[in-house]
């Protein structure tokens, strides 16, 4: 166990595309602590324990505890990044609406797509000696647009040094929540308008303008075939209309909503409230094959400034974008 006590932590450990935790895990693997009192902590957690830094709970330390030594000061940017990431993961629905998350090292990424015809989807019987039908997968014409989202941490070390870390964590959590909401808006824009490769969602007109009926959902369900209708993103107005449907007042549906807070439509599709969606539009899609998230690294912090106590205008950013996979797997109900 002594190896983690002798690590020298410095700025050079912050590498592009890797977190400090990843670097520390290579130097100090967690499997070495199986069966010890440190089991369950990752390499970063063990370093916090080494310097006796408590970032949460009743006995949380002040920010200045990180800056008692040069080694512990080098842990501060990673603490900031992890607190921001924690905020991004709280009430996060992006993992529930994307089919896959692709991590890249650069800023240029071209997704692949397949646009099958109705004949391609039928998978007809292949006679002996006949040619097997092809599914063509090709790269998209345009690159995925990546957006850098973030916040500037504007404060001085003097203003923060005596603040408790658990309170500072709450502030960083909110920065993460802001970033995630912006990324969700990016995902919605791609689902509705496409990713720049002529693949917007097909609009489906509701029977009566201004209202949503069970028949409208069945209409979308039919249009999505052979894809699965398993996810709905709705703005506030549409949520009210959906929750007021007689079918949503079914005893089983109500019990699930009241007991777990999870909303499921009569067709079994998961329902998510997304206020940023334009009113009068309901996004219906197959989460298993509609959307790809592309990330250029995780949360990035200005580690030089943070380690040197120059917190004034220290940037905290995350770069990501979204791409359509199967354009037919998304329909847009207009009501």
Task: Explain what the structure shows.
Helix content is 33%, strand content 17%. It is an alpha+beta fold and 335 residues long. The chain has a domain at 82-114 and 140-335: Alpha-Beta Complex (phage-related protein like fold). The strands form 3 sheets. A 6-stranded mixed beta sheet has the order 5-13-9-6-8-7, with helices on both faces. Strands 1, 4, 10, 11 and 12 form a 5-stranded mixed beta sheet that branches. It has a two-stranded antiparallel ribbon with strand order 2-3. Strand 7 (263-264) and strand 8 form a beta hairpin. The radius of gyration is 24 Å and the shape is elongated. The relative contact order is 0.18.
Give a nutshell description of this structure:
By secondary structure, the protein is of the alpha+beta class.
Features:
335 residues, alpha+beta, phage-related protein like fold, 6-stranded mixed β-sheet, 5-stranded mixed β-sheet, 12 helices, 13 strands, 33% helix
């Amino acid at each position: 166990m002594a190896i983690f006590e002798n690590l020298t932590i410095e700025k050079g450990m912050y590498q592009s595309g890797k977190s400090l935790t990843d670097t520390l895990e290579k130097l100090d693997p967690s499997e070495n602590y199986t069966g010890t009192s440190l089991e369950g902590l990752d390499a970063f957690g063990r370093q916090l324990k080494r310097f006796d830094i408590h970032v949460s709970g009743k006995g949380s330390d002040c920010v200045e505890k990180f800056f008692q030594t040069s080694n512990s000061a080098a842990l501060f940017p990673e603490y900031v990044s992890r607190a921001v990431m924690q905020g991004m993961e709280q009430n996060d629905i992006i993992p529930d609406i994307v089919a896959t998350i692709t991590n890249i090292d650069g800023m240029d990424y071209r997704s692949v797509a397949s646009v099958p015809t109705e004949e391609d989807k039928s998978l007809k019987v292949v006679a002996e000696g006949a040619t097997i039908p092809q599914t063509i997968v090709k790269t998209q014409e345009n690159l995925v647009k990546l957006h850098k989202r973030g916040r500037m941490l504007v404060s001085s070390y003097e203003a923060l040094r005596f603040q408790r870390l658990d309170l500072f964590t709450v502030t960083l959590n909110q920065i993460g929540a802001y970033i995630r909401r912006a990324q969700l808006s990016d995902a919605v824009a791609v689902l509705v308008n496409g990713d720049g490769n002529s693949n917007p969602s097909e609009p489906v007109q509701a029977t009566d303008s201004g209202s949503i009926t069970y028949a409208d959902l069945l209409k979308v369900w039919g249009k999505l075939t052979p894809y699965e209708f398993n996810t709905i993103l709705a703005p506030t107005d549409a949520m009210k209309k959906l929750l007021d449907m007689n079918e949503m007042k079914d005893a089983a549906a109500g019990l699930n909503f009241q007991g777990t807070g999870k909303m499921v439509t009569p067709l079994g599709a998961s329902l998510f409230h997304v206020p940023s969606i334009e009113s009068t539009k309901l996004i219906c899609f197959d989460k298993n094959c509609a959307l790809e998230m592309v990330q250029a690294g995780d949360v990035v912090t200005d580690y030089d400034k943070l380690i040197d106590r120059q917190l004034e205008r220290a940037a905290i950013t995350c770069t990501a974008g979204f791409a359509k996979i199967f354009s037919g797997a998304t329909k847009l109900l207009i009501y």
